[in-house]
Amino acid sequence: MIAKSQKNWSGDAAALLRVGEGFALADVDPQSTPGYEKTKVEAAEDLASGAGQLDEYQERLFAQSRVDATNASVLLVLQAMDSAGKGGIVRHVVGSVDPQGVSITAFKKPTPEELEHDFLWRVERRLPETGIIGVFDRSHYEDVLIGRVRELAPTDEIERRYGAINEFEKRLTDGGTRVVKVMLHISSDEQKARLEERLERPDKHWKYNPGDVDERELWPKYMEAYQRVFERTSTEHAPWHVVPANRKWYARIAVQNLLLEALESIDPQWPAATFDVEVEKKRLAAT
Amino acid sequence: MIAKSQKNWSGDAAALLRVGEGFALADVDPQSTPGYEKTKVEAAEDLASGAGQLDEYQERLFAQSRVDATNASVLLVLQAMDSAGKGGIVRHVVGSVDPQGVSITAFKKPTPEELEHDFLWRVERRLPETGIIGVFDRSHYEDVLIGRVRELAPTDEIERRYGAINEFEKRLTDGGTRVVKVMLHISSDEQKARLEERLERPDKHWKYNPGDVDERELWPKYMEAYQRVFERTSTEHAPWHVVPANRKWYARIAVQNLLLEALESIDPQWPAATFDVEVEKKRLAAT
User: Fold this and answer.
1) Residue A137: φ, ψ to 5°
2) ipTM of the complex
3) Is B170 an 8 Å CB contact of chain A?
4) How far apart are alpha carbons A155 and A225 in whole angstroms?
5) Pick from A98, A205, A277: which is nearest to B273 by CB?
């Protein structure tokens, strides 16, 4: 029996984090821990117990997809400013699932081949198969975030994309994929501290890119672009969640909780045998 | 400082497991634990400590590949009879590595499109990128194993494939990929017990396939085909290792050890900064 995802929480985390009518990113405190009133140490314990649940859910999801006519999968879309902790989510939350049941794609600057197609082309190719938890580390939302801030496409093309994204995600959810969209929200000061740490530690230098400082100058424009994304693409079928991420431990249990909730809503079951178990026992015994 | 992979072992595991001149699969006891004289409980502790080492090695490998002109990657090729524990290796050994640093492919029965190409075509497409640990759960060796046993190709085509595999793997290793080839070796009785367990447990029924019993009848032919594979494709640049796997805990630390050894031989280092650290600190401070 799998425990309910909410048991460690003082409130309905998914509801508290969901972007709804009248949402303003500027009102979210990146330091806060909505719905969770326990300590960092307790959060680590809750993360460990949730890890086992997540793993079992995914195995059930996969097992059922092999046998029954189900089409369920989960797609976690992660967006954030640099150093907000996407990699930590993948390592510490998704990493608790059997690696055979996970498909991770880190979307980089589009290749020349990718640019020869619509912006959703490369995304389509990386969708998770049935039974799998897919993770997008960055996604099609880059095309309306950096795309807007850096004016990589004309305004009317950016406008077109919001609608295209909504229709695309509607098709995914209609087809059985639970789309869990998460923006990890850190403060500009927190990013500064994290980049400083990368500069202090030789084993972190490889993660630092001088371009990060240039992007920092555009912080307000990025926040504006995120606000626009939330207004245009937080839909009934695929709502956004803004997760305060200055405290890494909070962001991790919060995203784990969103994944658990998505899997609970699928409620995958071990499939029944498609063969006669007693006949097979006899056949096997005879070998 | 990363500890040496051999410290928990009473002998050189890689050398003990390696298929060399005069090797006979029939002489390997699937119940044995070559080079390891400790208990199952101690093995679990050793596996946990090796997990951290493997994770750090992979992160260094990846970091270095982003910055320096290196081409190193690791490819673990897993072959075995059904239920020998390939999935457990992926989950419990490979699962300790950051999922962003791992690429797993489970090769199934070839698709019609794959059959329109040479047998190495689909394999080529799934090779790990630089800095990544790739895992093949089954591989191009199926084409000379089931391919031979079930006569899916003419004899001279099977013969051609051994040479093609050797040349292919030589190119990979020349290009910087460490190829770690492992056969997990269980006894026929152990397989019977594991299949019986799948039939006993409703949460394991989905893993059982009536065809498994038919394959069991061909056990001696498969052992013959494996022996042939070892004779023809255990090369200097990409040797085979036969890992006794009746004891799952032994198979896991043994494969972990082979991976650690491969990474030690690469000896990846944190790359030096490609920018002026002091200049960047000032630029960042000014934001």
Assistant:
1) -95, 100
2) 0.91
3) no
4) 12
5) A205
